[in-house]
Specification:
single chain, 3 helices
Length: 453
């Protein structure tokens, strides 16, 4: 634009310079008549006037262009200053956010429940019972790049630490955890959607925590967890606790002797020790709407009495966790084996302030489906419809199988989350049976609502 204007001005000036000698010649040396000379002069004057007008117009355009350039420069400077100010604000926000992540933050929950149990005559007579379920306190945060996570639970009949560990991030994908951490096994964080978990939980194969060290790689598409656990969360067979059944996790605490009651305190206490565990999962995303994680898990450890090693145990599983739009489908097949010297058909387990029994060996299968439906019904913002199925079979000692089916819906309303579960089960803890029992099919309708903060 600048070049074209300068070229036009130069062209006009050259034309004017070329025309000037002709004018002089016509005025002083022409032999034509005065009338003809006057006519030529007028024409020349008109040409000069036209040229001058053109020069003036071009000068005005050039001045306007310079003004536009100056204004554009001022706008560019203003945009640059705004961008710099915005970047400074974002930097400050990021700095404050990083600072806010430092320190320990507290949260928790309080839950109550109502249950109607057809296997309890008293409960049926009273049309069900309501009870306080749990108050829990959660701690989470970072101090000097060391992460802390812990959860303490209070029930009416006991208190228990669910987990408590310190973590260090090597990179954004790699972390080392030390303390009471989750055993890397099966679908995570849960192999279920309902309040009662799956039957695997009561075998110590879902959401179970032991004391040790764990390496976690959580990149995409791989997830790798490798762990070593010195003993269970109660300090092992000689742990300094008043009651080894005051535990959130289901842990093996003894070997059942012949004739010993399935709910009795074990006569032969043992504990797990020196357990190695690994979980490897790979996620595929065939479409934008579909994500599927395929994984395998395994663990192996020792069984210890107070004075010697009395055997070993192992477990392994294949699992799948798929998400398609609002659907979630989980499946898992697992096997476990407690191999006690001299043989044993039953193992004693302890949790929730009571002892129970499980088969020393068994296979387990789970298949779960959930559908999430967003809604806007006053404070209610979401409904999770689900059906979770568990089967434990091929038990040692020719024990009958366990199955549990939970049909339910969970309702989210602000900070309130409520489970409505209808449970049909056989030989299932908390539904009128035991993993080592031989009972009939039982039913339980349960409502558990909690406020989370």
């Amino acid at each position: 634009m600048h070049g074209s204007i300068r070229f036009s001005c130069v062209a006009v000036c050259m034309a004017f310079a070329w025309a000037t000698p002709s004018i002089a010649t016509a005025s002083s040396g022409s032999t034509k008549s005065s009338a003809g000379s006057t006519t030529n002069d007028k024409k020349m004057d008109q040409r000069i006037d036209a040229m001058q007008k053109q020069i003036k117009s071009l000068q005005q355009q050039l001045d306007a262009l310079r003004q536009q350039q100056a204004a554009a420069g001022r706008k560019a400077d203003k945009r640059q200053k705004l961008a710099e100010a915005r970047a400074a604000r974002m930097k400050e926000v990021a700095k404050q956010a990083a600072k806010s992540r430092q320190g320990i933050h507290f949260g928790g929950a309080m839950r109550f429940q109502y249950s109607y149990e057809d296997y309890s005559k008293g409960n049926v007579h009273r049309k069900g019972d309501a009870a306080f379920d749990i108050f829990r306190l959660n701690m989470r945060g970072k101090v000097d790049n060391i992460e802390l996570q812990a959860e303490w639970r209070w029930f009416q009949y006991m208190s228990a630490v669910k987990y408590a560990w310190l973590g260090y991030d090597f990179t954004k994908d790699q972390q080392l955890q030390i303390g009471l951490t989750r055993i890397p096994f099966g679908n995570q964080p849960y192999d279920s959607h309902n309040y009662f978990f799956s039957s695997n939980y009561y075998l110590g194969l879902e959401d179970t925590y032991h004391l040790g060290v764990e390496y976690v790689y959580s990149g995409d598409p791989w997830n790798v967890q490798l762990a070593f656990f010195k003993n269970d969360g109660m300090g092992g067979v000689n742990g300094y606790v008043s009651n080894r059944s005051n535990s959130y996790s289901y842990d093996v605490v003894g070997v059942r002797a012949p004739g010993e009651g399935i709910y009795a305190a074990p006569q032969n206490p043992i504990g797990t020790a020196n357990t190695v565990a690994a979980r490897v999962a790979y996620t595929v995303k065939p479409t934008d709407d579909l994500k599927v994680e395929f994984g395998a898990s395994g663990l192996h450890g020792n069984l210890e009495s107070s004075t010697s090693t009395v055997g070993n145990y192992d477990a392994y599983a294949l699992h799948m966790n798929a998400f398609y739009n609002r659907w979630n489908v989980q499946a898992e097949a697992a096997h476990y084996n407690y191999n006690v010297n001299g043989g044993a058909a039953l193992m004693a387990v302890g949790a929730y302030a009571f002892y129970d029994s499980i088969a020393a060996r068994a296979d387990s299968y789970t298949f779960n489906v959930k559908y999430h439906q967003p809604v806007q019904w006053g404070p209610i913002h979401g409904l999770d419809f689900y059906n979770d199925y568990s089967l434990v079979t091929h038990k040692s000692g020719q024990l009958p199988s366990t199955f549990m089916n939970v049909l339910g819906v969970a309702v989210g309303a602000g900070d309130l989350y409520t489970y409505f579960d209808y449970v049909t089960a056989r030989n299932q803890p908390f539904v009128g049976g035991s993993m080592a029992g031989d009972g009939g099919v039982e039913h339980r309708f349960n409502i558990n609502f909690g406020f989370y903060f």
